[in-house]
């Protein structure tokens, strides 16, 4: 049975998260790609269950079009960009950045209906963002990702395709009590067994938690210039300003810093999710440190550690998605909420409100 307001499958979830459905709101900015992925060579990417082709014009402007030629449906991404027109690989029809056909090689006239959907794009920090809903409804900018291109920060970015609905990752990265268990061997931040305080600031979910002095996760010691198991005081603060992006700040205080030496550091993670094909998600991640010019080898080592931890989430979330998809009971299965699920439940509330607003529109 479907919830009439949200269109999501109803089951035993108190607030359905729609993990088996198309549960992506359209009227918001989702991340289409890392800036470096978009070049003058067409990039094919499924976004919100649509095939999209991404490329750049000669002046650097990024373009996103429906990746399906309106003639005989060839993927335009198999073609080439010539003089800022994308040329279909099948019969050579050409399209401009607005998606309007500019040339049909076999005839002089261009049919009025020869056009593909063009999607608004904007760049924020190291990422390009796409609006796949009603362009008239654009009422805000993409989330500010300026720190990812700020020379004062050392920044790692990465990407994984996860065979699970995006909402599972979104809930996972705001669910912190799993760190002491699922990531016992990677993060080794085993003091994280109590739930953080969660509150809303407008539509932004915020969590905060202070930790007494304890050994810092070995994933981050090197990046901060500490020996392994260095004892620090931590203030963890995370926020989700959009269903597409959440941040997690590790505010680190080196309580044994010598006089005159730096004591306060920030490690900032960003978790960016974009729905792809049904049941698949593009997961772009950022790990960054508020010190410039960290050595490349150090960042590579940190990146490998972060990936090994995220791989643990990916493996488990993919198993959850596969099992729920195969189980005829689907979402119709008891699901309990614990006190520690405050932020995850808040994600579902934000999602429900957004979907209801779009269905009313
Ligand atoms: S399919 Fe694109 S020109 Fe024919
Ligand atoms: Fe995790």
Automatic annotation (TrEMBL):
Organism domain of life: Bacteria
One term of GO molecular function: monooxygenase activity
One Pfam family here: Rieske
Claim: Transferase is one of the keywords in the record: yes
Ranges in coiled-coil conformation: none
Residue ranges of domain Rieske in the record: 29-130
UniProt entry keywords in alphabetical sequence: 2Fe-2S, Iron, Iron-sulfur, Metal-binding, Methyltransferase, Monooxygenase, Oxidoreductase, Transferase
Gene Ontology biological process terms in this record: methylation
Gene3D superfamilies cross-referenced by the UniProt entry: Naphthalene 1,2-dioxygenase Alpha Subunit, Chain A, domain 1 (3.90.380.10), Rieske [2Fe-2S] iron-sulphur domain (2.102.10.10)
Protein name: Vanillate O-demethylase monooxygenase subunit
Biological classification of the source: Bacteria, Pseudomonadati, Pseudomonadota, Alphaproteobacteria, Rhodobacterales
